[in-house]
């Protein structure tokens, strides 16, 4: 086995959670080259993986929105780069048309994808010469690891290994967070869909509680509407700060400097988990058993995916992931784990 291509095109959280397949492959096949095909919008995240040897990307999402000639030329150029090597295997762990087209254009006689009932778009099946087994009964992230192992003939072992290394030096926001005397909690209140949001009054109540425990709350945002909501929260949480506009890399560096991350089912909260931060993920309209995070006494998902979790459940989750921190244990009279 010399070279393998992984196809996972979008989005931020899905790509982050798919990265452990790289460590699995390299454990099973020492010396193998692992390339990764993604949308240009998320390529920098793949570059952070210490195990990926070559990142292939194209502005697929941007071209779909703007239909600009320059983006089309970049896509054509990326095809030549994609076909520069012949692969022993191409593993499509995305399962939609665009990922299937990438798998089909790349050079290999072994292109493995999901069974028809497990595909995001059934027409993607045209690209594959082989299929994964039936989708396993586990969360989506472990399922990707199992499917890749089935395709390549190895057993998945141990917890996921993300192997992320963020660029240096950190930006000014991340540096200011790192220099804070008080521990910093980042609130990712924004989501891609309104039905995934947790009520602002709940964020305010949790923010006030954490401020009382000695934390300083920071609020990142990505759009004008999200900034307005962040300002509403900050106005009622003592000492809370609405952060300036930041790039994906700057937000990642800020997360790495934080003591605690609380957020909804969104990509940056998955990234916090991958960076081994103390993380609480809140589910309102999506499935925590399918898309959640979990690491003993470090990451936890709350909610049932059908209703709004109460503030008390969020605070219990924060107690769970933060109970072994010396400052927290001192303030709450608990013994450090």
UniProtKB/TrEMBL annotation:
<keyword id="KW-0448">Lipopolysaccharide biosynthesis</keyword>
<comment type="similarity">
    <text>Belongs to the glycosyltransferase 9 family.</text>
</comment>
<keyword id="KW-0808">Transferase</keyword>
<dbReference type="InterPro" id="IPR051199">
    <property type="entry name" value="LPS_LOS_Heptosyltrfase"/>
</dbReference>
<dbReference type="GO" id="GO:0005886">
    <property type="term" value="C:plasma membrane"/>
</dbReference>
<keyword id="KW-0328">Glycosyltransferase</keyword>
<dbReference type="GO" id="GO:0009244">
    <property type="term" value="P:lipopolysaccharide core region biosynthetic process"/>
</dbReference>
<keyword id="KW-0997">Cell inner membrane</keyword>
<dbReference type="GO" id="GO:0008713">
    <property type="term" value="F:ADP-heptose-lipopolysaccharide heptosyltransferase activity"/>
</dbReference>
<keyword id="KW-1003">Cell membrane</keyword>
<protein>
    <recommendedName>
        <fullName>Lipopolysaccharide heptosyltransferase 1</fullName>
        <ecNumber>2.4.99.23</ecNumber>
    </recommendedName>
</protein>
<dbReference type="Pfam" id="PF01075">
    <property type="entry name" value="Glyco_transf_9"/>
</dbReference>
<dbReference type="InterPro" id="IPR011908">
    <property type="entry name" value="LipoPS_heptosylTferase-I"/>
</dbReference>
<dbReference type="InterPro" id="IPR002201">
    <property type="entry name" value="Glyco_trans_9"/>
</dbReference>
<keyword id="KW-0472">Membrane</keyword>
<dbReference type="GO" id="GO:0005829">
    <property type="term" value="C:cytosol"/>
</dbReference>
<comment type="pathway">
    <text>Bacterial outer membrane biogenesis; LPS core biosynthesis.</text>
</comment>
């Amino acid at each position: 086995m010399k070279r393998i291509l992984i196809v996972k095109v979008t989005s931020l959280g899905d790509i982050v959670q798919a990265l452990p397949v790289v460590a699995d492959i390299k454990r099973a096949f020492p010396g193998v080259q692992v390339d990764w095909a993604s949308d240009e919008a998320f390529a920098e995240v793949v570059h952070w993986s210490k195990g990926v040897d070559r990142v292939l990307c194209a502005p697929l999402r941007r071209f779909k929105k703007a239909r600009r000639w320059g983006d089309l030329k970049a896509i054509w150029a990326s095809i030549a780069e994609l076909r520069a090597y012949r692969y022993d295997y191409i593993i499509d762990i995305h399962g939609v048309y665009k990922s299937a087209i990438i798998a089909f254009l790349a050079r290999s006689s072994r292109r493995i994808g999901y069974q028809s009932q497990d595909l995001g778009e059934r027409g993607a099946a045209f690209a594959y010469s082989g299929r994964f087994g039936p989708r396993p009964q586990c969360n989506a992230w472990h399922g990707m690891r199992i499917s890749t192992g089935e395709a390549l003939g190895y057993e998945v072992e141990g917890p996921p290994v993300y192997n992320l290394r963020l660029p240096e030096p950190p930006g000014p926001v991340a540096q200011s967070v790192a220099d804070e005397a008080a521990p910093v909690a980042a609130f990712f209140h924004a989501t891609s869909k309104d039905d995934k949001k947790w009520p602002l009054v709940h964020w305010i109540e949790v923010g006030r509680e954490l401020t009382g425990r000695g934390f300083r709350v920071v609020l990142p945002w990505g759009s004008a509407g999200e900034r307005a909501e962040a300002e509403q929260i900050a106005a009622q949480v003592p000492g809370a700060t609405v952060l300036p506009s930041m790039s994906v890399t700057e937000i990642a560096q800020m997360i790495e400097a934080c003591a605690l991350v609380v957020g909804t089912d969104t990509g940056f909260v998955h990234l916090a988990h991958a960076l081994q931060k103390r993380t609480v993920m809140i589910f309102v309209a999506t499935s925590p058993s399918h898309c959640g995070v979990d690491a003993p006494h470090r990451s936890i998902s709350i909610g049932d995916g059908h209703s709004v979790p109460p503030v008390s459940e969020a605070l219990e989750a924060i107690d769970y992931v933060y109970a072994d921190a010396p400052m927290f244990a001192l303030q709450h009279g608990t013994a450090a784990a």
